[in-house]
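Sequence, structure tokens reproduced for reference:
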Amino acid sequence: MEKNKKLKAQLPKGFRDNSEDSIDIRNQVINIIRNECEQFGFKNIETPALEYTEALGKFLPDVDRPSGGVFSFQDDDGQWLSMRYDLTAPLARYVAENYQFISKPFKRYQFGSVWRNEKPGPGRYREFIQFDADAIGISNNYIDAELCVIVARIFKKIGFSENEYKIKYSSRIIWENLFKQIEIEDKQIPAVLRAVDKLDRVGINGVKDLLLKGREDQSGDFMKGVNLKNDQVNKILDFISNKNSNFWASGISVVAHMQNPYLPSFHFNTRMIETSKIWFGGGMDMTPTFKNSKHKKMFHSNIKNMCDKHDKNYYKDFSQYCDEYFYLPHRKETRGDGGIFYDYLNSSSWEADFNFTKDVGSCFLDVVSRIISMDMSKNWKKEHKEQQKIKRGRYAEFNLLYDRGTKFGLQTDGNIDAILMSMPPEAKWI
């Protein structure tokens, strides 16, 4: 600094002072939040402003560089420290460090200043106070409903009427299913979520630009895009712009585990899902304990004849999908003798797709009835029953490890009896 240069009193860009009045208002709001959280069993914790940079993870708000968006420096030992950019990363570090000592479920709330080395703008500061409430060790979605109630009570006590705020709920499970459907690469997911998170700030067209090549903001700075394909971008935009946000689903599931070991287990499912689009899914498959060429031939020939009435490619495509889906990678074997399995069927003709799905159900009832009548009276012994239990162990392994419907139901705290209805009554492992 030049000796004679006069210091200028000014705030660093992106920071602000707080007056006595603003602090009083802030404290009133904090007290309301604190009281509501504690009524629901949340406990307050504090974490330091500094964390090891590597513990914060990769935070890339606007730029594509490993430490972008954070204020960082090296300590005397040469280790990089960063000022926390949110309260979630410190919580993850806290739980990992104290996991054996904290009681589960662990419900915590926290207030604290966070710092982001981003370009400031209207209402966007580099330092601001954040509030977080999280629950660790709870597998159902009751906690989500509880947090929504807490937020609503907080807004009401602050003075907002019901039509002056909106609570938005998101599920990572739903997003992951969407990303899988449209083949988003794992390395692209963080950037996609950051782009979507800017919806309120940049609008739907701004999000579109960020998902494609990128966009130039009002200052002329260019923000690099994700470089997705046009059809991927369109499906994401359809998903986030669905203002109706209605969801309707209907389905039928049938699982039959036979008493007689010489009869296969049968599985059937059809469903129709309506969101912004309508699609059908379903199929049927057969899992025998003892291979029976007559059963297999009858099962598949009837399915093929039914499929061919609608589309000559259906049997080939859907039977292949069935074999790929009902596969146990750790055993390197299929679950049974296959069948058909289809999903996201939307041929642009609702009537055609519905008629095919109805025929899937009719075909299942017909062919299963005939297979059962062939061998339902066949005598079996104790050792045959033991083989059946071992085979059903494989069935249970697939449903618990790989079946999407079972996993989704358990993760979202659905009806346990309905979710596990497909499990065999007995199983055995040797």
Summary: The first strand starts at residue 43 and ends at 44. The CA atoms of residues 113 and 129 lie 4 Å apart.
